Amino acid sequence: MHLSPLQAAIKRQHLVWKMKAWVAAHRLAILCASAATWCVLTVTVASHASDYETALTAFRTGNYRDAEAIAQVEVDRGIWSSRWSQLLIECQMAVGDLKPALETYQQAIKRYRTSLRLRYLGIDVLRHNGMSDAADEDEAEFFRQLQRAMSGYISREDLVVAGVYLAERGEDARKILQLFFDRVRERDPEYLDVYIATAELALSKGDYAVAGQTLDEAAAQNVRDARIPFLRSLALRSTDADASSAALQRALAINPNHGPSLRAVAANAIDAERYDLAESVLSDALQVNIHDADAWALLSVVSHLRGHFGSEQLRRAAALSTWNENPQVDFRIGQTLSKKYRFAEAAAAQRRALEFKPSDTPAVFALSQDLMRLGETDLGWQLAQQAADDDPYNVVAFNLLTLLDRVGEFPTLTRDGITVRMEPTEAKVYGQEVLDLLCEAKAVLGDKYKTPLPDQIIVEIFDRQDDFAIRTFGLPGGAGFLGVCFGNVITANSPASQGARPANWKSVLWHEFCHTVTLTKTKNRMPRWLSEGISVYEERQRSKRWGEVMTPRYRQMILGRDLTPLSDLSSAFMQPRTPSHLMFAYFESSLAVEFIIDQHGFDALIAILDDLGQGIPIADAMARQLGSPTKADMAFAKFAKDQAQAFGPALSWPSTSGPEASLEVPQPDDIEALKGFVRFNPTSYQGLSSLAKALVEAERFDEAVSPLETLQRLGGTTGRRDDWLEQLAFVHAQRGDERAERVTLLDIIDLSPDPLPALRRLIALDSKAEDWSDVFRWANLAFEIAPMATDIQASIAEAAQHIGKHQRRVDALTALNAMEPLDPLAIQYQLADAYHRSGQHAQAKTQVLHVLEVAPRYRDAHALLLELVERTDP
């Protein structure tokens, strides 16, 4: 057993005391000699500890050469501690000195044959030096030594590295946590590496909560280590983009040469289509380590996205140059391409990774997700099950397979190459209407964009928001997303999953199907802004009530500092400062599409899409149709500002310059001062809106009418949610002025895609007036928003009965019957009556017999049955 200098010193001192009686006669001399020896050894050990901390700090802050120099000196001195060799190897690998790292390892392993951590490092060193057979032999030896070590004493360093190794082999993560990492934390709660290893394991399984908690504990160690904020950025990436970015910057502030952080910055730049930035950052990473396989893999992706397929292959070859069967290279390529919606290419990359390592569970699971997004759901689910079986701790796989049990109960509706899967009751209620809309979209948009569509298009509609998020993103969450299109696969939230104010489901599905058309046309090679912009634009083309429109907020953002240049629109979707900035990105993108069509014609847009489909980068495709990017940016800015100025032109708007800039609107609680301000500034949007809000909150409804009507008359309203028109309708209702309220409600439904409260109020007003034609009209409009609302279906049925729309009454009552009504017999009797009035006497007779079977004394049902018998059997 080898002893460190400190252990040797302690043992010597122990022997000194043990021999105390024997040396009594010479006590003074012996103690003096021992003390001198102890002092020398203590100083030496303290010096070595100080040097190691200095070297480790240099390594953690990216001063790899300084750390390497210190470690090299200690290794050359022959200090009996494997940690110096390990640190030297890590320094050499960090800067790409593969041959020196190999030499260091080969010398060190002769001396420290039982060090698991050293041998684990050596496996990687051997592979990257092209010595795969030797690496396999060392891995086998590592496993044998691990088995022996687990039966006796094992150091904390070796326990952690053993856990990391077993996790890479796909062993049960829960057991690894319990048997390895938790043991180390109990033994040494201040050992940083165990927290890092735990967080990395949790992140690899999609357990961001455990990762975040562990990183909090790591941060409490007060050690400046870039790995902590870097891993935190990964844990936050899917939930808080701003915090994730800030954590990444903290990591690079600690260690500007931290490879994983540099690659993460580059990956974010790729997501934002800032390929020049990505290449620049990756170049910095390669300056640190020319053999950084992950950096070369990302560069290969950049080449692919730019359509530079020759350099793509060269860069991939560079990534594999030191280890030609490295599965991580193609796994990373596939992951990145998948985020860019290049699912076919991503699946091909994962298959290449699996050729190198068939047991690579992360690659199996990534392939399963890519296949499901390509519509190959049977094989996709099968591979997801395989990944879950191999890795029970994989949270995303577990979520997906839990969802599979439920989705398996969904009925399948098909027509014209479109397959729709919905919750069973929803499928009965409005499944056919969904198919009607999608078939219309396929015909209209496919022809408009000259695009032959796939033979099969899959649309999955979920009545639970978490189910939608799990199917779409792998994890619960995703609030705010109404639908997502992957190409020929669309997932969407149903109205039932959205609470009291659902979005217009027809508008949502039209938007998503437009993505199917444009992604198919471009082979998924289009930037997000263009894809979203076309979809929002086509919503407005289908209905003036659909899609994003100009609002006072958007006007302010365009004329202020929030307008993104046309050439950089994808960045607007990356890390938006607020939810309103994200929605503005959708609107601005649709303005960009409108600008292209208005200034250059619809054929120019088609030509850009055709170029993208050929692999031509977006910047080149747009330059071919729009000319100079600088001039196009300027022309678009003018177009957008003209659109903004056209909104409410008769109003005076707040600005940062001009006479309006000096106007100070009184405090919102000072109504009299606000009234005085509006008298002198009768067209001030800010004054009118502040006064209207104050008067409504004070319940001075009669006075609130004037500023609200002025806002409407001067063009400052949109009819959308939380707009002043909704306030005006509310004020009229509070005043009891049903005539004025009705006029305002009609204005709202003429402008809004989802005016459910307004429609419900109109149904109530017209039902009281027995204006059944209008009730029927409003209820059917409400059906486009909330088809599962029983009051809406009941209104359709009642109005249809009065105006003789018997088949529509049958449909509404059938829907109500499927929704588990409070009085099912009453609904079934009405359904029998509706069948009878529509001439479907056999169905009516069957239905009324069902009623009488449950309630034999139901007199109205008896009467209807007699009428049916007389009609069908004279």
Strand content: under 5%
Helix content: 55-70%
Largest sheet: 5 strands, mixed
Strand order of the largest sheet: 1-2-3-5-4
Describe the secondary-structure layout.
Layout: H1 5-18, H2 27-60, H3 64-77, H4 82-94, H5 98-111, H6 116-128, H7 132-149, H8 156-168, H9 173-187, H10 192-204, H11 208-219, H12 227-236, H13 241-254, H14 259-271, H15 275-288, H16 293-305, H17 309-319, H18 327-339, H19 343-356, H20 361-373, H21 377-390, H22 395-407, E1 412-415, E2 418-422, H23 424-448, E3 457-462, H24 465-473, E4 483-485, E5 489-493, H25 505-522, H26 528-542, H27 552-559, H28 579-600, H29 602-613, H30 618-626, H31 629-645, H32 671-680, H33 685-697, H34 701-713, H35 724-735, H36 738-751, H37 756-768, H38 772-783, H39 790-803, H40 806-818, H41 824-837, H42 841-854, H43 859-872
Parallel strand pairs: 2-3, 3-5
Antiparallel strand pairs: 1-2, 4-5
Helix pairs in contact: 1-2, 2-3, 3-4, 4-5, 4-6, 5-6, 6-7, 8-9, 8-10, 9-10, 10-11, 10-12, 11-12, 12-13, 13-14, 14-15, 14-16, 15-16, 16-17, 16-18, 18-19, 18-20, 19-20, 20-21, 21-22, 23-25, 23-40, 25-26, 26-28, 27-31, 28-29, 29-30, 32-33, 33-34, 34-35, 35-36, 36-37, 37-38, 38-39, 39-40, ...
Describe this structure in words.
It is globular and about 105 Å long. The chain is built from 43 helices and five strands. The longest helix has 34 residues. It has 874 residues and is an all-alpha fold. It has a five-stranded mixed beta sheet. The N terminus is likely disordered. α23 packs across α25 and α38 packs antiparallel against α39. Helices cover 69% and strands 3% of the residues.
